[in-house]
UniProtKB/TrEMBL annotation:
Protein name, as recorded: Uncharacterized protein
Keywords, ordered alphabetically: Membrane, Transmembrane, Transmembrane helix
Bias kind Low complexity: ranges: 98-110
Lipid metabolism among keywords: no
Keyword field contains Transmembrane: yes
Ranges of compositional bias, category Pro residues: 34-44, 61-76
Membrane-traversing stretches: 375-392
Length: 510
């Protein structure tokens, strides 16, 4: 069996002969140069002074082969042309495959970019006073970019911690010399007795935050410069009912109370003026997306607005703990450490702090940037421009607009339905159904389980009392030793006997 192959302009024939013993041998012939065309003479030119160089085809150098190998028969005329055409066709086929693969890759990349465009990752923003602020123009024209930015920054878990501080004042005297005479002057100084913070961020639920919207009947900023409601469903900004100053004050007081008692931020004030569940709202009626509009519709409402100075606010809230009651308990714990005995007039402060409180998306124009910069506000006040800008944004129709209708919530503890529960089921029936296993310890049943028309609910997460018991010894030790540090670590309160033993142990190295 013989086959031809090409080696740099030469045809080489391979011959395989079957041996009698079943083996095979191969002989490679001597290279035979292909017939190359002779250079064509240059055509005659009318200009006798102009010389046209003759064109010649490139000639490949022969490749030496081992000696003693028989040469193949002469190549048939036109064999080189056939091989060249084959090579050209193979190149065309490879080019088509490359184009198809490139097109497919381009389409796939296009799909990926559609899901998460690169431009969205390069949106400019800055952080001021624990608030994310962006004036990027793409957020005022592209609802997908706005949705991506809100989700990206609204879902970042904030830092949450409590700071305990004890101070007292002392009156001191000093001698001052005035007009050539020495006088005794009395002054007051504030002494810090202890100060430390405890991080609570680890107790926040690790899952994605809960996205919520404000109910239509709740006063909120809905595109105007005053709070408004939409009792009849979605309407234009001008048609939304503006609330009175008294209604706005009542709503702001309700929001402050909601934060202090740990109520979910989307729970609205009862219309009859009653009080809702102070610990955590239970039941399927607890729907975070309470607005008649979806989140995307509110974002579209912001983008379509022609107002000059616009501000879309996304509030970030930590809820679940009654910080008002917990602050009272921490104050009593500090007093139990004997702080009032040493400093009867001392002042104890307990403050819960949350970082990254909200996200602001504002218009990209320069006037809007003035309201975002304290420096610009100060400079424009010096030239008496800012007061007029403030009045113009506040009262001129179509000048300013605020949106504060949505947010993200991070629970420390929350209610969820017991697995497999049914309407009307009792706690005892749920325990029997789950194999007789107690859902919670008997001492915590009242605060951990609730029976509603939907079934049995269980409280998940860290309770205030659990955290308090975990840190009470460390807080007592820090107050007694007058600890002043940024973060408090777990400490053990030593007894008098342990303290004496530590003193004695210090002598062991003598």
């Amino acid at each position: 069996m013989a086959s031809n192959m090409m080696l740099d302009g030469y045809i080489v024939e391979s011959v395989n002969d079957n041996k009698k013993d079943g083996g095979q041998s191969a002989t490679v012939g001597q290279p035979v140069p292909l017939t190359m065309p002779e250079p064509r003479p240059a055509p005659p030119s009318n200009d006798s002074n102009q010389e046209v160089p003759a064109k010649s085809e490139p000639v490949s150098m022969p490749v030496p082969l081992p000696t003693g190998v028989p040469a193949p028969p002469p190549a048939q005329p036109g064999a080189a042309g056939i091989l060249e055409e084959t090579v050209v066709e193979e190149k065309k086929t490879a080019l088509r495959r490359s184009t198809t693969s490139s097109s497919s890759s381009s389409n796939s990349s296009s799909r990926d970019n559609k899901e998460k465009p690169t431009d969205y990752e390069n949106i400019e923003f800055e952080v001021k006073d624990e608030e994310v602020i962006s004036h990027d123009p793409i957020l005022s024209r592209d609802v997908n970019a706005l949705s991506y930015f809100v989700e990206e920054h609204g879902s970042l878990k904030p830092d949450y911690y409590v700071t305990l501080r004890g101070t007292h004042t002392e009156k001191r005297t000093r001698v001052v010399r005035r007009d050539g005479r020495d006088r005794i002057e009395t002054y007051t100084v504030t002494i810090v007795d202890f100060e430390f913070s405890i991080d609570i961020s680890s107790h926040l639920k690790k899952a994605k935050p809960i996205v919520y919207t404000v109910a239509d009947h709740v006063p909120a900023f809905r595109g105007g410069m005053r709070m408004a409601t939409e009792p009849n469903g979605p309407t234009r900004i001008e048609s939304r009912r503006m609330v009175t100053s008294d209604e706005q004050d009542i709503q702001e007081s309700w929001e402050q109370e909601t934060e202090s008692v740990g109520r979910p931020p989307w729970i609205s004030r009862p219309r009859d003026g009653g009080r809702s569940d102070e610990e955590a709202y239970v039941g399927l009626a607890n729907k975070p997306l309470a607005s008649g509009r979806s989140v995307e519709e509110w974002l579209t409402d912001y983008i379509r607005s022609r107002r000059v100075v616009k501000d879309f606010k996304v509030t970030k809230s930590v809820y679940g703990w009654n910080t008002l009651s917990l602050s009272t308990s921490l104050t009593e714990l500090v007093e139990a450490a004997g702080y009032r005995n040493t400093h009867p007039t001392g002042h104890i402060s307990v403050e819960f702090t949350q970082s990254s409180k909200c996200v602001h998306i504002r218009s990209p124009n320069f006037v809007s940037k003035i309201f975002s910069s304290k420096l610009y506000i100060f400079l424009t006040c010096l030239i008496l421009v800012f007061p007029f800008l403030w009045l113009w944004r506040r009262f001129w129709p179509g000048a300013g607009g605020k949106w504060a209708v949505m947010g993200t919530a991070f629970p420390i503890k929350h209610w969820e339905l017991v697995r497999g529960t049914t309407p009307g089921e009792t706690v005892e029936a749920a325990q029997v159904r789950l194999g007789g296993k107690d859902l919670v310890p008997a001492g915590e049943r009242m605060k951990r389980l609730r029976v509603t028309p939907e079934g049995v609910w269980i409280l998940r997460g860290t309770h205030e009392s659990e955290w308090f018991r975990e840190w009470q010894e460390s807080i007592l030790a820090a107050v007694k030793t007058g600890t002043k540090s940024e973060w408090l670590h777990k400490m053990k309160l030593q007894t008098e006997e342990e303290r004496v033993n530590d003193i004695a142990n210090n002598l062991d190295h003598v």
